[in-house]
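Limitations
The structure tokens in this dataset are predictions for the assembled complex, not deposited experimental models. Users should treat interface geometry with appropriate caution, especially where small molecules or nucleic acid strands are included. An illustrative entry is reproduced here so readers can see what is and is not provided.
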Amino acid sequence: MSDLFPETTPSLTPQNLPELDEWRNLKIDQQPTWHDHPDFKASINELNSVPPLVFAGEIDRMRKNLAEVAEGRAFFLQGGDCAETFAGATADRISGRIKTLLQMAVVLTYGASMPVVKMGRMAGQFSKPRSSDTETRNGVTLPSFRGEMVNGFDFTEESRVQDPKRMVQGYHTSASTLNLARSFTTGGFADLRLVNQWNKGFTSNPAHARYESLASEIDRALKFMEACGADFDALKTTELYTGHEGLLLDYERALTRIDSRTGRPYDTSGHFIWIGERTRGLDDAHVNFLSKVNNPIGVKLGPTTTVDEALTLIDKLDPEREPGRLTFITRMGASKIRENLPKLVEGVQNEGAKVVWVTDPMHGNTISVPSGYKTRKFDDVVDEVRGFFEVHEALGSFPGGIHVEMTGDDVAECLGGSDPIEEAAFADRYETLCDPRLNHQQSLEIAFLVAEYLSR
Ligand code: PEP
Ligand code: MN
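Predicted assembly:
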């Protein structure tokens, strides 16, 4: 079997690498309390035997692509929902998100004349850390919503019950999402010669118009190359990797497989797995588990991160100092990035380590408006992106990528933009189950801004 399918890894039992279970004896935060649930064992057994969602060879390729980012020769774009939903896994919605991501990538590739490594926050982004275990509304207290792989969003007792079978549903929803993503990116749609068509179906807006003129420029350039007899094979398909927060270790562990080529473990739930700001404790379960798998790993770093913490994370997660293995996703907040990021970058530089630096300009800029909605001001998002580029420029380090919560839908969740979203629109077009996302227009605007910095 391994000769026929060298990239598949289903054979070895999950028990045969004891280090993959060390995390079970460590402190672990933000987990469901469902281990005594009657369906827990059967759900885990099922996940132990399902096919991998992604293959070890693809994961290796992404790590190599990210090594190019670490060396300053490519840019890393990560985007998607804060929390995916089962009901949202429809062809229209998935394709809207993918199209928006591809459009952002085209703006960046063309603007920066640089390859872009693309990762959707999708096909697995179904579990969420919460600031409290419970939520109270009108005097009623229920367990918090922890993502659809754990419980339901509706504020009823029944919906908020933590159900391990949801992990299996999360796996299948991820599989169908990934299937559509793969056919989109390899089945002809992502052919760069169709770049003009990717705008179709979105509401027109200023960023949309700017995209249209860029797409025409690309179109002219491609026609010129075609007339010169250039070979277009490389332009016909693109690679879109998947990634999510590796929060639910029951799920991540159950989808971990041993690669028959190398005997090394890969978390096959997605290509790129990151550790959230709230679960990155140095001696805790998440850092331990993800230190054992061969995927490229990200860690979110908030404004309180110390240089020592960053260096210890490198020692634990990237002891070989392999460029592409470790990505630091900083999410400082617009008002703090210029003050807090330089010391981390310098500390890592002095250590001689090469990480990929990515900015998440979303999570440090979340506010609540009086009407109760969680939102972000587009200007704060822009300001954090600017701060990120300024800091890296001053220190001579490479600003490697951007991580955004976005959607292709015409939602009103973040305030502002060049065709400004106002709070009054929230009542009709606020759809996220968790954090507010950039809509199609705001996503393209951010891409144009980043392209300007990269082309300097
Ligand atoms: C997230 O990415 O949705 C998230 C919870 O981020 P952070 O860990 O940075 O707070
Ligand atoms: Mn979020």
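Some entries come with short summary sentences. For this one: The chain is about 40% helix and 15% strand.
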